[in-house]
Amino acid sequence: MELLAPAGNFEKLKYAIHYGADAVYASGKNFGLRAQSSNFTNEELIQATEFCHSQNKKIYITVNIFAHNEDLAELEFHIKFLSEIKVDAFIISDPGVFSLVREFASEIPIHISTQANVTSWKSAQFWAKLGAKRIILARELTIDEIKEIKKNLPDLELEMFVHGAMCMSYSGRCLLSSYLNARDANRGNCSQPCRWKYNLIEDTRPGNSFPIEEDEHDTYIMNSKDLNLIDRVAEIYKSGVDSIKIEGRMKSLYYVANVTRTYHNAILRAESQEELSSNVQDELNKISHRVYSEGFFDSFDSMSTQYHQSSAYIRDYQFLGEIISQNQGEITIAVRGKFSLGEEIDLIFPDIKDDLTIKIEKIFDEEEQEIPFSKPNRSVKLKLNNTVPDWGIVRKKIR
Ligand code: SF4
Asked: Which of 43, 191, 258, 259 has the most CB atoms less than 10 A away?
């Protein structure tokens, strides 16, 4: 079973691969449904594809907007370019974009995006007959429904989301953001108004807003929990699903790395029929997240996927930076968050068994001068008494 991780930019892509992803999904500057993510220039897409293939990994490109007439000419150009650089698949939801790929990049496999909301084996069969290689199933399916799709279409690849944010609409089929903020969710620009806190204003009393209180926590009437299926990976593995996917192209490098290694570990355990250890599962509580849920995995109970008390992230750990080099027991960190003398920090690595917690006794700046704390966007050095694996990330507990 493949582990598919998000790559919001080239740096995150490299961490996803080094932390255990078998494949990544990414997008060019347009057409990929995450307009707020930094995404990839054409030059970066060439380099990213070469990098993935050099590591024996795959790269799938999202072209899953619902295209308007004005998009078509540029889309054709983009599809031809992606065909030339030999990406491993297109992720598509719009039949018009599907036709363009068939016409101009017929040798590249097509994966049908979750945005196409495939919820039955008949719908999956429809796309398969048109030539789709894989279906990224709607999030709104139970595992029993997924098994039935696999039973009816054993040769069709199935992919499912196992982790990350969910929509309160059928994945992205929603005009809230267009309506309230003129930002089109179906062209990658959702501003997430479903998570806003709403008040009531009477027509003749502007400026006088009344809280809409469901209870003492106010009312977040449309606020989805985050999906977390780490405890169900063994069942998913047995169900015949071909690929599990992590949401989060706009999340941090630390999120991508830590979630990827956790699910990588879970797949290894499922393959060897071992239990997943609780300290591995705990890693998913050490990233910024909303209240977790198992989505629709057991039943189509949409109330259990919503959280009405707050849309704020739960954040117990802070991402502090990456270890960019080491030399004779000294590590250099590209700093993203402040840390000070006397604090404890965690150094985490692709294999969780290598993780370390250390107390900071000395910090050196770029000129080798001792300093009391790190400053973001600089690099600092710390002394360790041992060597550590490559691709380390630094974090600290904040709550
Ligand atoms: S507003 Fe909310 S439900 Fe609608 S597309 Fe955006 S995230 Fe999804």
From this structure: 259
168 lines ligand 1 (CB under 6 A): yes
Do 118 and 22 have their domain in common?
yes
Cα–Cα distance for residue pair 250/256, rounded to 1 Å? 10
Q: Is the same domain home to 292 and 151?
A: yes
From the list 390, 388, 247, 253, the residue with the least C-alpha distance to 319 is: 253
- Ligand 1: residue of 36, 66, 178, 194 to mutate (most ligand atoms within 8 A of CB) is 194
Cα 36 to averaged position of ligand 1 atoms, centre (Å): 14
- The reply to whether ligand 1 has any atom less than 6 angstroms from the CB of 123 is no
Model confidence pTM above 0.90: yes
Q: Pick the residue whose CA is nearest to atom 6 on ligand 1.
A: 192
Q: Which of 281, 305, 329 is the last residue of a domain?
A: 305
Establish whether residue 177 lines the binding site of ligand 1, counting it when its CB lies within 6 angstroms of any ligand atom: yes
The last residue of one of the domains, among 240, 270, 305, is 305
Structure tokens at 398: 């904040």
Pairwise CA distance, residues 379 & 326, whole Å? 12
pLDDT per position as a tens digit, 129-187: 999 999 999 999 999 999 999 999 999 999 999 999 988 888 767 888 888 888 888 77
Distance 16 CA to ligand 1 centre (A): 26
